[in-house]
Amino acid sequence: MDKLAETAIGQIEKIFGTHPSFRRAHARGKSYRARFTATGLAGHLTTASHFQEGEIAAFVRFSHFSPDPTWADAMSPVKGMAVQFQLPNGEVTNIVGVTSPIFFARTPEIFTEMLGVVKSFKKGKPSLTELADLLADYPESGAMIANIRKMQAPSSFATGQYNSVHAFYFINQERQRQPVKYLWEPESGTETLSLLDAIALPIGFFETDMEDRIAKGPVMFRLNVILGQPGDPTDDPTKEWPENREKLTLGYLTITEKAPEVEKIMFDPTLVTEGIECSEDQILNFRHHAYKISHDRRISEI
Ligand code: HEM
């Protein structure tokens, strides 16, 4: 896996350029300090300590998906929200979400192959012939690409909905397994931008907007868990679960102030704690290797 991850990061650098000390994806972003207040409503489904009733500290980083930090905000319609929970026993655990509910590749091999084909990803637009070739080879990827074309970026980091994309398992006291996905919802309501409005935004608008909001008071998100049913795919990030699945509110994140020191942190999505397990999803498990390579490179470049 490490070798394939090296190849994938190499392809990203070839297509988007190498930007020393920046993350190899989601390069531009801002980090904040927060508190997470759990409702305890999923206490019968998981023994995870941060989902039992109570309050803990957390860090959050919002980002634009592009591996090139110089891209304008509008060129990255997909935004990221990475949260690290500080558990009472000193451990940490992460949830890493994006504004898209699905990913474009089913396996790390397909992801790396697709990057190999895209040689001219300039300012967010691969050539149409390259896109047509890709879609012919990987029809499941079309859903994500069609989604991005339709997708309106949120008007602010504070007004996006962020999906874990991958499934995880909650494990309870009786060792029963419940497949779940996470969804962060903004307490102030979701809001999108029209493409025209987005194009008019100056670079860094999203970061300045967050600063302005936090200066006026905390920014809040609700963490929901979506409960999978038998037959819902747990190993395929290109597939969404049906809309009508039951949701539980796990808790509320209150974002209070900037935390620039967190820029260095690695938000590995596979870092889970007792009471939670990663699913079999190959992309999820591959990310552990890719993030480590990116983290090692960017830290050595500071
Ligand atoms: C083959 C699949 C993927 C690869 C190779 C990949 C690669 C990367 C890399 C290299 C980073 C920077 C890590 C660091 O330096 O700390 C990153 C960050 C990120 N990725 Fe992925 N990624 C993949 C899939 C996904 C998926 C499916 C999601 C959806 C949730 C996602 C969401 C994010 C977010 C939100 C960040 C920013 C995290 C932060 O703020 O530190 N990625 N990705």
TrEMBL record:
Keywords: Heme, Iron, Metal-binding, Oxidoreductase, Peroxidase. Pfam families: Catalase. Belongs to the catalase family. It comes from the Bacteria. Residues 1-301 form the Catalase core domain. SUPFAM superfamilies: Heme-dependent catalase-like (SSF56634). PROSITE patterns: CATALASE_3. Gene3D superfamilies: 1.20.1280.120, Catalase core domain. The lineage of its organism: Bacteria, Bacillati, Bacillota, Bacilli, Bacillales. Heme binds at Y291. GO terms for cellular component: cytoplasm. GO terms for biological process: hydrogen peroxide catabolic process; response to hydrogen peroxide. InterPro entries: Catalase, Catalase_core, Catalase_sf, Catalase_SrpA-type_pred. GO terms for molecular function: catalase activity; heme binding; metal ion binding. It comes from Planococcus antarcticus DSM 14505. The active site is at H26. This is Catalase. SMART domains: Catalase (SM01060).
